[in-house]
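Example for reference:
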Amino acid sequence: MKKITFDKKKIKRFFKEHGITAIPMLIDIFIFFCMFSLAYYLDSLNIVPSPSGYGATMLLALPCIVTTILLMYFANVYRIVWRYAGTMELLRLIVVGVCSLAFGLLYRGLFTFAGHLYNVPNPLVFNAYMLFFFMAALYRVSLRLIIAARYRFRFKNAVKKPVNKVIVYGAGYTGAALVKRLLENPSDGYEPVAIIDDDKLKEGNLISNIPVEGDRNEIKRVIEKYKANVIAIAITNLSKPELRSIFDYIKQFDVRIMITSAFRDAQSELNSDVISIRNIKIEDLLHRDEHTMDRELVDGFIKNKVIMVTGGAGSIGSELCRQALKYGCKHLVIFDHHENGMFEFNEELKKTHDRKRYSLEMGSVRDKGKLKEVMDFYRPDVVFHAAAYKHVPMMEISADESVKNNVFGTKNVLEQCNASGVKKFILISTDKAINPANVMGATKRVAELCLQSASKTFTTQVAAVRFGNVLGSSGSVIPTFIKQINAGGPVTVTDKEMKRYFMTIPEAVTLVLQAGALAKGGEVFVLDMGEPVYIYDLASDLIRMSGLIPNKDIEIKISGLRPGEKLFEELQYGNENVDKTSHKDIFICKLNEVDDVRLNESLEKLWQASTAGDKDLTETYLFELVPSEYRKEHMNKKAKI
C-alpha cells in the first residue's frame, strides 16, 4: 500500500492563495464544538431535558460546522484584517450567522426522520449558534482591543524618537477614523492628543479616549496645553471655500496644517485602511470649488472624433490628450518636438490605453511640410494648438525665436488646418496677451489677431481660449517655490502686491474642451478664474504646508519685478465686453475688428526681422502691432537704468 504523504509547501500555498488563515479557522471549529457542548449542558438543566443524547448533538454539529466554515470562507470573513475592522465587518459576521442558523435548523429538521433519539430540540440549536457567533465576534474584537492597547502603551513608552502631537479638527466620522488610525499606527510618528469641533454639543466627549476640547476658539489654549505642533483637518464633505476658511483661521497659530487623505470613505464605516493624513496641496485652497463639466457638450465635441494636439507633451497639451482619450476620441494624434517629453508621456499612456488609440508624431509647428504630412495622413476633426514658448524671462531675451514659434508657428497650424479640412481649431491663449507687458504675451496676442483674421475666410471654425496660471505646470511659480523651500529658502517673491489667477490643469482643460464645443468661429473665450491670489500669500501658505513658519524657518525675499512682469494680469481689454454662453463659467469676448491689411503688413515686417535674427527690431515691430501702456512703462524704467 502506497504511503500517503503531505507536501507542507503545497498546503501552505493553498491556504495563502485562498486567503485562508488556518489558525482562526481551527479556533472557530474548536469554539463551535465547545458551544454545542455548552448548549447541550444547558438543555440538560431543563426540568424536562430532551431525549436526544450528547452523541446525537455532536453528530448534528458536524454538518453545521462544515456549512458555517464554508459560509465564513465565501463571505471573506477570514480575509478581514480585524485590527482595522469596523461596523461593516461585524455586520458581515451577523449575516453569516443568520444564514448558518437557517442551515442548522434545516439539518435539525432532517435529523427528526432518524427517530426521537436524534430529535435535537430547536432551542438547543439556536443557543449553540448564538453562543458560537457571540464568542467568534468577542475573540476577534478582543484581539483588536489588545492590539490597540498595545499601541497605546507603545505611545506612552515610545522609542526615543520625535512624535508629532496632533490636534484633530473634527469630531465626526472622519475625525474618529483618523484618531483610530493614528493610535493604531504609532510608527507614522503622529500622536492624537485632542479634538476640536465647532459643534458645542460635542465638547467634553471622548473618542478613543481622546477628549473633545471645544471649538476653534480653544485652539490656542489646546496647543499650549498639549504642546501640539500639528492640526489635522478631518471633516467629511468639506468644500474648498470651507477648507480655505478653516486654513486661514488656523494658520495664525504657526503650526503644521494637514488634512485627511480619504475622508469621503470614512462616512460609511470607521475603517482605518482608508484614512491617513497628508500635507494640504495648494489646489485644495482655491478660493472656489472646481468648475462643473457639461458631459453632453464634451461628448458631442470629442467622442468618436480624431483629435490632434500640438505641444501634446507639455503641461496643458498632455492633459488635453488625457481628457480626449477619457471622453472617447476615435484617435489621438500627439504632436510635439520635445523628445524627452514625448518619451515620458508615451510611457505613461501605454500603461492605461491601447497603443492603437493614439499616435506620436515628432515635429515642430514651424515646419510646414511636417504639419501637412501629419494632417493629411490622420485627417483630424479638431486641432488643439498648445505648442508655444511660454517662459517670460526666456522670451524677453529671445524675441525673434518667440515670434517664429508663437506667431508664425500658430499661423502655420491655422493655415494647414484649413487646407486639410479640419473642422475646428482651438488656440490655447493666456491672460498675458491682454495689454502685454512682455514679449511672450505680445506674441500670443498677435496669434489671436491671426485667428480673428482667418475666421473671416477659413472654412475651419477657429477660436481661442484665454486663462491665467495653472497650478503645477512646468516652470510655474509653485514648483519653483517648492524647490526653494526644500533647499531651505529663501523663497523669492517679486512684489508683495503681485497677484494672479490660478486654476488646476484638469479643470482648465475641461473648460477648454467645453469652450471648443461652443465655438462657432472667430471667438475668444475667457474662463471664470475665480478670485486672484496674492503671490506672497501663496508662498506663505506653501511654507506652512511644509510644516514650517514663514519668515522664521523660511525667509520670503522680495526681489522686485522682472522684465516684462505686471503686478496684475487681466483676462480682457478694458474696451472689450463679454457675453455669457450656455456654460456659466465660460464667456465670449466681443473683440474689435481686425485691420487685415495692417496685420499682414506688420506680419511681413515681423517675419523679415525675426528670420534675420534681429531681436531688437523684432521686439519693436511686435509692440507696434500690439501697443501696450505697460510695455512703455517698462521700457522707460529700463532706459533710466
Notes: The mean pLDDT is 80. The two ends are 105 Å apart (CA to CA). The first helix runs from residue 8 to 17. The chain has 21 helices and 22 strands.
